[in-house]
Design brief:
56% helix; two-stranded antiparallel ribbon; metal ion binding; mainly alpha; single chain; metal-binding; 1% strand; Ribosyl_crysJ1_sf; ADP-ribosylglycohydrolase
Length: 449
């Protein structure tokens, strides 16, 4: 049996990359692995061709331990230490009379953006464009379709296997199950049970009680294993976890912002508490940034105000801040035309194309670029996030949540009607009504500072 995102031989190849990025000297470990017949090149999907032989797997575990033991730069151990790294928070309006509608717009926008990106997750930019041109849908302005797609294009760029049966225009029947929606629903349950004083251990327990292990990926799957191995926080995020700066924590924290209208520092604190279960460094800052975006989006007037406010959730000297700054700078230079969008995305790919397609930094740059260029218009914003490639459903979900909150009445039936007001989930309770989720979210906002 091949278990992706968990086999030691696969983890080691990714850990060599992550440790080197953190400034660790990995040369000796790499040499021993290669000399034993191991592949030092990480697989794109998280899985190699075949499981390693028992001796090679045992060596991979040993080398992972050695890399873990090399001292790194410790991150903040407490929220007070983390908060001291953040810029001052700008003043934002109080929750407006339209707050409830904006929260529902955020849920709808997140779902629609995620759904748009689902069938082309893992497909590179060139493949996405070829699919759209072959089906007469370039530039992207509606959900994908397989109708009219030539066989050779379909063979060259196969749809995401898990998503295609439920996320093409011809087969959408409500929002299908996805981890990008599982996590906000899980966060809702977390706050309903523990309130805003929840701990990282509370998050771990909730995962064990409610989250199927098979519906976790990358850093979350490793953290889940570490929880079951009785490793304490924050070791859950670091032990044999090469995905600790990938996008998993960023996709978990929108709801923590929605229940904190205008309170970017408060949303960032909740996100930091959640994210440290599985992530470190820019993986955590991606989560605080996403929560900051969400907290601002339910009260702000425009995208620029949202992006300005969310900058207070990220250290100014972090890699995450640099990625966001690049996306915003390129977005301001872009007039929204196809050649200008292409040129901006080319620049982002030049800067971050060496990273895995689900890393935090490349996708955060895309989110910032898509929001800036889209200027609050739903369709173009999520379309840019998807046609950028990389983690298409996650990036478009974050963008969709922001734009949906800013202008809930302007999302459009083209995007919302196929959702049918419902979200499938692998969590207890099964399918959820979006209106109910929004009402529960609004009810929790009474605890916001």
């Amino acid at each position: 049996m091949r278990l992706t995102w968990a086999q030691p031989e696969d983890l080691l190849a990714h850990e060599l990359v992550q440790s080197a990025a953190e400034g660790k000297d990995v040369a000796a470990v790499r040499d021993r692995w290669v000399a034993a017949g191991g592949d030092p090149v990480p697989a794109v999907s998280g899985a190699g061709a075949e499981p390693a032989t028992p001796p090679l797997r045992a060596l991979a575990r040993e080398l992972l331990d050695e890399l873990d033991a090399i001292p790194g730069t410790p991150g903040p151990a407490t929220w007070a230490e983390a908060e001291a790294l953040l810029p001052p928070a700008p003043a934002l309006p109080a929750a407006p009379a339209s707050y409830a509608a904006r929260v529902e717009g955020a849920w709808l926008g997140r779902a629609a953006g995620c759904l748009l990106g689902k069938p082309v997750e893992k497909i590179p930019r060139a493949g996405i464009e070829e699919i759209l041109r072959a089906t007469g849908r370039w530039p992207l302005d509606r959900y994908f379709t397989a109708v009219g797609l030539p066989d050779d294009v379909a063979a060259r760029w196969p749809w995401n296997r898990r998503s295609a049966p439920t996320s093409l225009e011809e087969n959408i029947a409500g929002m299908p199950e996805d981890d990008d929606l599982n996590y906000p629903i899980l966060a809702l349950a977390l706050l309903e049970k523990h309130g805003r004083a929840f701990t990282t251990d509370d998050v771990a327990q909730l995962w064990l009680d409610n989250l199927p292990a098979g519906r976790t990926f990358t850093a979350e799957r490793v953290a889940y294993r570490n929880i079951l191995d009785a490793r304490p926080v924050p070791e859950t995020a670091t032990h044999h976890n090469p995905f600790r700066e990938w996008i998993g924590a960023l996709i978990r924290t929108d709801l923590l912002g929605w229940v904190s209208p205008g309170d970017v520092p408060g949303a960032a604190r909740l996100a930091w508490t959640d994210a440290r279960l599985s992530h470190t460094g820019d993986g955590i800052w991606g989560a605080t940034w996403a929560a900051g975006l969400a907290a601002a989006a339910v009260v702000a007037d425009d995208v620029e105000q949202v992006l300005d406010a969310a900058s207070a959730a990220v250290p100014a000297d972090s890699g995450l801040a640099a990625a966001v700054a690049l996306g915003r700078s390129l977005g301001r230079e872009c007039d929204g035309s196809e050649p200008a969008v292409r040129a901006g995305l080319d620049r982002i790919h030049e800067a971050y194309g060496h990273l895995h397609w689900v890393h935090t930094l490349n996708n955060a740059a895309v989110v910032a670029f898509a929001l800036t260029v889209g200027r609050g218009v739903f369709g173009p914003s999520v379309a840019i996030a998807v046609t950028a490639g990389w983690d298409t459903d996650s990036a478009a979900a974050t963008v969709g949540g922001v734009v949906g909150a800013l202008a809930p009445d302007a999302i459009g039936e083209r995007w919302t009607a196929p959702l049918d007001g419902r979200i499938a989930t692998s969590l207890p309770g099964g399918e959820q009504r979006i209106a109910d989720l929004a009402a529960r979210t609004v009810a929790l906002a009474g605890g916001a500072s």
